[in-house]
Fold this sequence. Notes:
Blueprint: E1 4-9, H1 13-26, E2 30-36, H2 39-49, E3 53-56, H3 65-71, E4 78-83, H4 88-95, E5 99-102, H5 107-115, H6 126-136, E6 144-148, E7 153-157, E8 161-167, E9 171-176, E10 181-184, H7 188-194, E11 200-204, E12 207-210, E13 214-218, E14 223-226, E15 231-233, H8 239-247
Parallel strand pairs: 1-2, 1-3, 3-4, 4-5
Antiparallel strand pairs: 6-7, 8-9, 8-12, 9-10, 11-12, 13-14, 14-15
Amino acid sequence: MNKIRAVLIDDENDSIEVMKMLLSKHCPHVEIMGWANSVDTGFKIIKEHSPHLVFLDVEMPGKSGFELLRELPEKNFHVIMVTGYENYAIKAIKYSALDYILKPVDVEDLKNAVAKLDPLKLSSDPRLAHFGALLKEDTPVYDKLMISSLEGFKNINLSNIIYMESKSGNYCIFHLSNGSSEVVTKSMSHFEKLLPKDNFYRIHRSHLVNLNSVLSYENTTGELVLTNMQKLLVSVRKRSEFKKKMNA
Length: 248
């Protein structure tokens, strides 16, 4: 397995020590080149070691992790946020198909995040350019979503998503307006938190729909018809809220 050069940036020494221990035990192919407790020292070790991967805390005294990223002239590395805060900025990271891990760090989350990286393909990875552009935006506008599967990843327009279908085994299927479908190795709950709530609504535990793709809805049966002519049922307990969403 190819070695991944990594640096750790976190103002909490305990967090750095925990991450070093977890990586050594569960991700031995990750080579820790250095670590830092502030944005200023983090800037220096990134320049010094040219890592493939940076584990970065968001909230640090003085400057945030995002300020560090904005100040770097080149961002030819991946970022995994390791933080106790699941906020709007973290959602921006998820839209760029980069990852984050909430503290306390879950081993499976860590392994899954690291598994996404291939240092040999780093220079041609479109996610880096997408992330770099995002950091330059004062008010990011999210009209695309990067989805990952066992085969790789794909950038899709939110408007092209008709609905999502949840499957057992922690994966789901995106049904798109061009008639194709994409099997994604994340749960629908993951995307429910991520997608804009004004446009997407979970009508049933098995289905999340793009409200702009709804052609009709039958009050008596709770059946809706989508633009691809797919018929789905809105669960009884969701019908009142669904109608409010559609009439908003």
